[in-house]
Every structure is written in C-alpha cells, then in structure tokens.
Amino acid sequence: MSAGGIFTGALRREFKLLLQSTEELANPLIFLFLALTLFALGGGGSPDTLSAFAPAIIWVLVLLANLLALEGLFRRDYDEGSLELLVLLAEPLFLPLLAKIFVHWLYSGLAMTLLAPLAALILFLPAQVLPTLMLTLLVGTPALSLIGAIGAALTVSLRRGGVLLALLVLPLYVPVLIFGAGAVTEQMAGIENMAQIYWLLVITMVALTVAPFLVAAALRISLEQ
Amino acid sequence: MGLKTFWHRLGSPRWLYQMSGPWITALGWLACLLLTVGCVWGLAFAPADYQQGNSFRIIYIHVPTAIVSQSVYMLLGAAGLVLLVWRMKVADMVLATAVPFGMSMTALALFTGAVWGKPTWGTWWVWDARTTSMLVLLFLYFGLYALRQAIPRQETAGRACAVLALLGTINIPIIKYSVDWWLTLHQGATFKLTEAPAMPAEMWLPLLVNVLGIYCLFGAVLLAGLRLEILRRERDTQWVRDLVETAA
C-alpha cells in the first residue's frame, strides 16, 4: 500500500471510531468551558480583572483540556488490543500514528480554536484581540497534540497514568504557553507580536518532524511489557 | 587502550565495576579537596563585592550547582540516545543514577538563588528568565523520576525514560529561548567560554575551583551509584556471587 493509502485508511478508521464515541469528543470541551466559568466566578466577574488575565486563563485551560483529551488517545486501542496489531503490522508506523494525532487535534485544538470567541466572551477579552487569540491557538495547538502524544504513548500501559501524563507533558508545553499567551497579551497592549506567532509555528514544525518517530518508539517500548 | 575498545568495554558492567573502584576514591578525595579550598577561599578570603557586599558570596555554591544540574540533564539526554541506539546496559544505569543527583542540584541552585535574591533584589522569587528555566528543569527531573517509579519492569522503565530524556533535551533550548523572551532581571552568565570573566581573578578563581570540585563530586557519586546498580542488577551472575563470598 502506498504511504498516502495508509494515511487515509487510518484517517477513515479514526473518524468512524470517533463518531461512535461522542462523549470523548465533547468532554474536554465541556471541561474547558466549565473551568472558564469557574475562573469567572472565582474572579468576581469584574470585566477589568478578567480581561487582563483572559489570555493566560484561556491558554492554560486549553493546555489542560488538551491533556484530558490526550489520555484517551491510545487508551481504547490499547485495551482492545488493536494498538498491538498496529505496532506489529504497520510499516511505516508513524503514518497511522500521525493520522491519529491529526484527528485528536481536530477535536481538541481545532475545536477549541473555533470555540475561542465564546471563551473570549465569558472572560471579556476585547473583540479586536480575538483574531490574534484564534491565530495563536490555530498554530500552537498542533504542537500540543504532537508533544502530548509522546507522553500518552509512554504512559498508555500504566493503570493510573493520568497525573503522570500531566507531570511529563506540562513542562514541555511551557514554550507554547509563553508564546501563545504572550502574543495575545502584547496585542492587547498594542505591541507588535508577529515574532511570537512565527515561534509558535517553528515549535509546531519541529514537533511535526520529531514527534511521530518518538511516538512510534514510545509505543514499541510501552507494548514490550 | 583505544577509544573503540573503551566503548566496547563500557558495555560490560563487570569491567566497569572493577575499574571504577580507584576512580571513586580519586574523584571523591579530589572533590573534597577542591570544594574545601573553593569554599574557604571564596567565603573567607575573596574580596567583598563593591555593590552587593558579602551577600554575593553565595555564588560560590549557586553557580556550580546551577552549571552541574544543566550538564547532568545533557548527560541524561546523551545516555538516552546511547540506550535507544546501542541498547547499552550501562547507559540505562546512568539514566537511573544521575536523576536524583541532578534533581537535588537543581533544587539547591533554586534555593541558593532565592537566598541571594532576598538581600539583592529584595524578594525571594522573581519570574525572570533563568530562574524560570531552572524551575522547568526541576519539573523535567521530577517527570523522569516519576516515570521510572511508575513502570514496574526495569528494562521498559529505562527505555521509556530514555525517550523522555531525549525529548527534554530537544526542548531545553526552546524553553530557554522562550523564557529569555521576557524582560530579564538576572545578570549575565558568570562564565563564558569566549571571553574573560568581568570580575577580578581573586573572585572568580575560587568559583572555578568549586565548579571543578562539584564535577568531581558528580563523577564520584555517579560511579558509586553505578556500582550499586551493577551489583543489584547482576546479582544472579557468578562473578557477583564470588565477589560477595570473598567479601563475607
């Protein structure tokens, strides 16, 4: 089978599985908005306070919601055994994995990008900053899915991998958070911020180049035991 | 002994066990000597700073621990690569032994930094570029430690940690750059390879002695830890049994 065939075949399978489990799709997004609401309530609901912290709050919660979605990335395939078959049979392995990560990004990163106006509304983020917020989310979240997939692959065989996954992955998310939230904050202050957006792109590109191979290696290690 | 022979011998835990004994003694004593000389010289005899007074003297602990903690992570990344490519047992043992040392040195560097920051900057903690990247480094160490604890099978744990260490090593420059983006309060690096230090020789010489001393300490601690790991992992082999019998 050609490389493109493997990729689209894996993609088709992922979509089918996803449509069967809508809760997997919705839960991280519901968590995102629940947590945003909690921040608004905890912050006293004052527009001035909330909008000053809105870029940071939105970006941090996107990281955390992404992390929640990551836990299930390989979990079901591991439990039912199809992950083992994939690792044994797929050649090259990184293509179906890339399809998996891409679909994960669609229902986490891309969905959050599209829902960003709602998040901005809750936290009173000024409307003229919204395009920047969406742009940073669009170019930054693929890196989150790619880097996070390595952590998910390393912890998939562990019974209680959730907290460990957060411990492994969150420090690696630091640059994305700094450039992402930084670009939005600078836009609010009226400062030129294209450099941060280019940096987000660089991180995403490096992750796209390196991560699929590390995910493949990590899955092989996890399935050894 | 050629480099290639050395590389092959390094793959043998037994050889490493036998040759490391004298090295531990030598490095251990050298570390004691250098650290004592460096600390006494730096804390008692070096001139006080014209701006910071005596409080600057904590750099004699702060800078060596900060430097060594970053080197240890780089070593972990290299060991991870060696383990994944050549499957060398000793690389896995290095990954297991060096993590606690690196973790404690990072914590010590952060602590001494805070102690120095209070009189100098007027606050224990500042979100400046270097303190932040050291804090993230500490979290990276925590992650490596936790991952090894979580995976029951030793060989799997070692290789999983190797992937994580490699990933962290790729990420460290990006993390460093991203936090450098912020306004930086921290003064520039004390030592640069390319130029002479800005402080007078009687101030930086003790520091250099301490840096060398802490590397010797790391070498001794690492080798001693490796010996323990070798004994633990090879306990079923004949040569370890013979060793234990002659000792008893």
Q: Please give the largest β-sheet of chain B.
A: none
Greatest interface and its participating residue counts = A-B, 30 and 30 residues
Number of domain modules of chain A? 1
Radius of gyration of chain A: 18 Å
As a percent range, the share of helical residues of chain A equals over 70%
Listing every helix as H and every strand as E from the N terminus to the C terminus, the arrangement of chain B reads HHHHHHHH
**End-to-end gap of chain A:** 30 Å
Can you summarize the main beta sheet of chain A? none
> Which regions of chain B contain 5 or more consecutive residues with pLDDT less than 50?
none
- Strand content of chain B is under 5%
Structural account:
- The complex is a heterodimer of chains A (225) and B (248).
- Chain A is mainly alpha-helical.
- Chain A has one domain (3-222).
- Chain A is built from nine helices and no strands.
- The model of chain A has no long low-confidence stretch (mean pLDDT 90).
- The longest helix of chain B has 33 residues, at 13-45.
- Chain B has one domain (22-187, 196-247).
- The model of chain B has no long low-confidence stretch (mean pLDDT 87).
- Helix content of chain B is 78%, strand content 0%.
- Chain B is globular and about 65 Å long.
- Chain B is mainly alpha-helical and 248 residues long.
- The relative contact order of chain B is 0.17.
- In chain B, helix 4 (89-121) packs antiparallel against helix 7.
- The chains are: A mainly alpha (225), B mainly alpha (248).
- The A-B interface holds A 147, 150, 154-155, 157-158, 161, 164, 167-168, 170-172, 174-175, 178-179, 182, 196, 199, 203, 206, 210, 214, 217-218, 221-222, 224-225 and B 84, 136, 139-140, 142-143, 146-147, 150-153, 155-156, 159-160, 163-164, 166-168, 170-171, 174-175, 177-179, 181-182.
